[in-house]
């Protein structure tokens, strides 16, 4: 099958950051404001994720709307996992950050041992794709824990969190453009976009009393979901144009 992951373009990173924001605000909205609770919200989102992931795995090529739907649901589930450990089981953010870091390292090690590459440009087998999605899940869970640790436990606040994680991503981007390892810089940036998106989502949605701008979780979620839909439609149009161009070039 052809590569199942899109190129890491500006559109890719924009959708990724907004998907992480939706994961933060959407999970909070369903669990708190709708009143479903963490357990029920987590169960519902997990069922939807499994359905989307099944559809994604059955495709033989990259299909933008299925891929990004899966990413958004992974974001919500990853957030729920961290919230369940922190709020439900009382696990400290320090412990969960360390645990998810180790889990992610193990997945990377198993992936590289099996496939000898961690590149997103070679997701052309089901086994590689399963490694990829396991990695994505742990990056979201780790990013949620690390983001909450920085903005809440360490007291940086949402605004400083956005600036700090944005600056770290900029440093990684500069490292890539001056000759850094593309696979390493990609995965570091991917992990950092999660706490950046979470901090940004909290900054927009939380009340002014807690250091936010007071837009609310539903308004923030709808805003970013709408933007994601527009960008996915744009990405789909680009994908179709590329396929037509390949078809024309083929004899």
From TrEMBL:
Superkingdom of the source species: Bacteria
Keyword Membrane: yes
Transmembrane segments: 29-53, 65-85, 91-110, 130-147, 153-177, 184-201, 213-234
Keyword annotations from UniProtKB, A to Z: Membrane, Transmembrane, Transmembrane helix
InterPro entries reported in the protein's UniProt record: DUF347
Pfam families: DUF347 (PF03988)
Name the UniProt record assigns to this protein: Membrane-anchored protein
């Amino acid at each position: 099958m052809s590569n199942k992951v899109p190129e890491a373009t500006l559109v890719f990173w924009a959708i990724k950051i907004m998907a992480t924001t939706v994961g933060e605000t959407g999970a909070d909205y369903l669990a708190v404001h709708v009143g479903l609770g963490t357990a029920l919200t987590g169960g519902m989102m997990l069922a939807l994720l499994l359905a989307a992931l099944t559809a994604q795995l059955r495709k033989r090529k990259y299909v933008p709307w299925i891929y990004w739907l899966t990413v958004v649901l992974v974001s919500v589930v990853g957030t729920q996992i961290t919230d369940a450990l922190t709020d439900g089981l009382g696990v400290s953010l320090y412990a969960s950050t360390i645990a998810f870091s180790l889990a992610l390292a193990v997945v990377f090690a198993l992936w590289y041992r099996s496939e000898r590459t961690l590149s997103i440009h070679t997701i052309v087998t089901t086994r590689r794709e399963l490694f990829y999605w396991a990695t994505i899940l742990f990056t979201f869970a780790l990013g949620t824990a690390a983001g909450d640790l920085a903005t809440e436990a360490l007291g940086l606040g949402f605004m400083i969190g956005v600036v700090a994680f944005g600056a770290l991503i900029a440093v990684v981007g500069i490292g890539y453009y001056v000759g850094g390892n593309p696979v390493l810089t990609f995965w570091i940036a991917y992990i950092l976009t999660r706490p950046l998106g979470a901090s940004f989502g909290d900054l927009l949605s939380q009340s002014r009393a807690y250091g936010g701008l007071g837009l609310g979780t539903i308004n923030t979620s709808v805003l970013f979901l709408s933007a994601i839909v527009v960008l996915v439609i744009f990405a789909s149009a680009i994908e179709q144009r590329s396929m037509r161009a390949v078809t024309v070039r083929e004899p």
